[in-house]
């Protein structure tokens, strides 16, 4: 059957090609095993002849750099942090999934895949989900071996707990600091290779461009954030593991330095961006309490294991939560989704919280949140047990709000969090630009339209430790004997000049507003127009506002300081310039996709408040090209589901 993508009703959108994800034909359960067997190998004595650049030192980047370094490749790793362990992977608190099936609760790799594919609302690759489940077993053993202090049962076995979107216990954790402990272990493994001389690490460097020659990516342009020096670095292959772009919303759970610039520069050089509008709003973020707040704070989804979510039934109820009797509380997730209750997937939980808040039943001073209440859990198992499970999270909440969650409910609200969209890549993690690979949240493949909790740390570890160390050598093997691109090659000079010209342009506007001013305005536009719920009207309005704001940016921006030294305003300005272009594409993608799926909730496509997919027309991944002349070209990769039949999600 010939696949044909539907025409777009969005002005400026043009049809592109049908993409081949290069997924091995046949049973998706054995696809990864068969692909690994087909990969070309590189003789250990030849590995040192190949240089690989890794940008980013989070779980995906640190894992890939450490693994490739230990294999013997000449690895150069870059991070804009002052140390690799400070990468944003530390912020994922609740746990990491694995289909090890050590509990007698009927878990398995197949059940993991069903949960992941269904959780993503059938908008991710089925074969990728199988690789994720298969390698998850090795990930836990590996991270445990290199020092991650996983929680243990009384008898010494690794402990697990449940997370949203599943009915089994497959989430391994280190109290409420799982990402931090995994990142520390991975950073130590990376630094071990630095000490061994196989990895060269450069901190406080930010990627500003790619070097492309002979049709393939052969290096990067970096700016030293301390001195302002712009330098070129060539290699046989480049891996981008630079995280997601959730900070485009300004108020997000991401660290303030997390950004989209490396991935967006790849798009500007011809890479494709898949599903940019698939943004996850975390249901347990802390609500915004002041317009002067710089970001939101993430509270781990693991809290939903024991906390109960509710709002007052009466929209005008101003009583303290402890004064509201049980029969006047609406535990709306338990009421609407009795099978999963408070452990519904994140998109469902966020959409329902958004619905309650918009209906006037929000709580708190700004009535922009819902309650997450531990009263019943404390009465059932005691304060000590709750403190063992979530103590550091409770402390963090108290520090942020001044309130004690042991005695009064937490207040939570949906906050921009994780990007399921990212650079499109084939099954080997290579983008549409030969020689450019992607890992972690910068990619797209596993999560579809909604990521299940505790699958982010897993996907980053699988990419870094157990996918890229196989697929990158397969790409390098035929290049044996080819020399690295010379530092004075025309393509290098062109990339350097292009980067310097862009810095000069940012510095020379000399308007009246700093970059943060424009970022705040952009965030307001996106939350209203392309947030938890979208409509044709809100998206059309958002596109118009973004274009107008981008024009203002390039005439009213003012960057204080100089470009030949530490200048964080210059860093912000470059990132906001990229956000303003990315934001338009996000809205175009959301407007183009005439269906609801996962976190992409178009109000025009729903039934009783639930997302309604259109599998007949939209069972494909939109991968966007941006020629640079105002057009948006939508390429499409068809999605097929052989092991997990297409079905409407049901968590009731």
From TrEMBL:
This is Succinate dehydrogenase subunit A. The active site is at 346 (proton acceptor). GO terms for molecular function: electron transfer activity; flavin adenine dinucleotide binding; steroid dehydrogenase activity, acting on the CH-CH group of donors; succinate dehydrogenase activity. GO terms for biological process: anaerobic respiration. GO terms for cellular component: plasma membrane. Residues 1-27 are annotated as: Disordered. Keywords: Flavoprotein, Oxidoreductase. Residues 52-457 form the FAD-dependent oxidoreductase 2 FAD-binding domain. Residues 519-651 form the Fumarate reductase/succinate dehydrogenase flavoprotein-like C-terminal domain. It comes from the Bacteria. SUPFAM superfamilies: FAD/NAD(P)-binding domain (SSF51905), Succinate dehydrogenase/fumarate reductase flavoprotein C-terminal domain (SSF46977), Succinate dehydrogenase/fumarate reductase flavoprotein, catalytic domain (SSF56425).
């Amino acid at each position: 059957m010939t696949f044909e993508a539907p025409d777009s009703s969005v002005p400026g959108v043009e049809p592109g090609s049908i993409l081949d994800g290069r997924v091995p034909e046949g049973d998706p359960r054995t696809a990864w095993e068969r692909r690994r067997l087909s990969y070309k190998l590189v003789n250990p004595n030849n590995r040192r002849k190949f240089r690989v650049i890794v940008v980013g030192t989070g779980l995906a980047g640190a894992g890939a750099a450490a693994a490739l370094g230990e294999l013997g490749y000449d690895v150069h790793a870059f991070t804009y942090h002052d140390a690799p362990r400070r990468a944003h992977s530390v912020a994922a608190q609740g746990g990491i999934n694995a289909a090890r099936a050590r509990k007698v609760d009927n878990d398995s790799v197949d059940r993991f895949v069903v949960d992941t594919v269904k959780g993503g609302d059938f908008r991710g690759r089925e074969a990728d989900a199988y690789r994720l489940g298969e390698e998850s077993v090795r990930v836990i053993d590996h991270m445990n071996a290199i020092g991650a202090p996983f929680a243990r049962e009384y008898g010494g076995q690794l402990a697990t707990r449940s997370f949203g979107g599943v009915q089994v216990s497959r989430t391994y954790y280190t109290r409420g600091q799982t990402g931090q402990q995994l990142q520390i272990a991975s950073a130590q493994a990376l630094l071990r290779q630095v000490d061994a001389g196989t990895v060269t690490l450069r901190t406080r460097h930010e990627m500003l461009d790619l070097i492309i020659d002979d049709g393939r990516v052969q290096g990067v342009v970096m700016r030293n954030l301390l001195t302002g020096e712009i330098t070129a670095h060539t290699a046989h292959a480049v891996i981008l593991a630079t995280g997601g772009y959730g900070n485009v919303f300004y108020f997000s759970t991401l660290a303030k330095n997390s950004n989209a610039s490396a991935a967006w520069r790849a798009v500007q050089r011809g890479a494709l961006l898949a599903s940019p509008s698939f943004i996850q709003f975390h249901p347990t973020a802390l609500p915004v309490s002041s317009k002067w707040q710089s970001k939101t704070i993430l509270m781990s989804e693991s809290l939903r294991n024991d906390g109960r979510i509710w709002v007052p039934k009466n929209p005008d109820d101003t009583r303290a939560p402890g004064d509201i009797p049980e029969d006047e509380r609406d535990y709306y997730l338990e009421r609407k989704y009795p099978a999963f209750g408070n452990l519904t997937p994140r998109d469902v939980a966020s959409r329902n919280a958004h619905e309650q808040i918009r209906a006037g039943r929000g709580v708190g001073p700004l009535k922009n949140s819902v309650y997450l209440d531990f009263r019943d859990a404390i009465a059932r198992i005691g304060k000590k047990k709750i403190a063992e499970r979530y103590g550091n999270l409770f402390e963090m909440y108290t520090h942020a709000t001044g309130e004690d969650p042991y005695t009064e409910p937490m207040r939570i609200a949906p906050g921009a969090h994780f990007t399921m969209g990212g650079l499109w890549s084939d099954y080997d993690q290579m983008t549409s630009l030969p020689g450019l690979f992607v890992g972690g949240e910068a990619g797209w493949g596993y999560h579809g339209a909604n990521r299940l909790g505790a699958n982010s740390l897993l996907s980053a570890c699988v990419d870094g430790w157990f996918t890229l160390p196989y697929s990158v050598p397969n790409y390098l093997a035929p290049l044996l004997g080819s020399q690295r691109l010379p530092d004075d090659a025309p393509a290098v000079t062109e990339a350097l000049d292009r980067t310097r010209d862009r810095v000069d342009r940012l510095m020379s506007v000399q308007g009246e507003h700093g970059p943060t001013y424009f970022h705040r305005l952009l965030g307001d536009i996106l939350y209203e127009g392309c947030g938890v719920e979208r409509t044709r009207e809100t998206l059309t309005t958002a596109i118009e506002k973004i274009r107008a704001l981008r024009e203002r940016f390039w005439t009213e921006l003012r960057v204080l300081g100089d470009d030949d030294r530490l200048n964080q305003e210059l860093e912000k300005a470059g990132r906001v310039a990229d956000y303003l272009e990315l934001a338009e594409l996000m809205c175009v993608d959301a407007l183009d996709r005439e269906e609801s799926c996962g976190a992409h909730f178009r109000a025009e496509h729903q039934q009783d408040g639930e997302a309604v997919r259109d599998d007949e027309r939209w069972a494909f991944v939109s991968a966007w090209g941006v020629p640079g002349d105002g057009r948006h070209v939508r390429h499409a990769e068809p999605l097929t589901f052989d092991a997990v039949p297409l079905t409407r999600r049901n968590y009731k």
